Amino acid sequence: MPIPPELVKILRQHIAEYGTGEDGRIFRSERGGVVASTAYTEAWQEARVLALTPAQVASPLARRPYDLRHAAVSLWLNAGVSAPDVAERAGHGVDVLLRVYAKCIDGHKEIANQRISDALTT
Description:
The structure is a single chain. The protein is mostly helical. The chain has 7 helices and no strands. The chain has helices spanning 5-18, 37-51, 54-58, 66-78, 83-90, 94-101, 109-121. It starts with a helix and ends with a helix. The mean pLDDT is 90.
């Protein structure tokens, strides 16, 4: 999945400082194994408290790390990235992508109408 250059820089610094596990993992437990899902959950909940307002913490906003995936896919679609490109980045088939995310696409009717009009007049 493509990531922003700022995140690439952070990950490279992390790898330079801590290296990788024998299996190539960037993040690993204290003993070098797979990080338990409970550890991720605890860290995520602590981060939400630090990053969000109390009202947001009480809401479903980013309740799980996986919710960020949904937010990213919705953002890409609403930014006008084509469904095949979004599906490839998200690891979905286009049919699954549209079945799950079509309801998240908003505000594109006028753009679509203009594109259709432009295509018919050229």
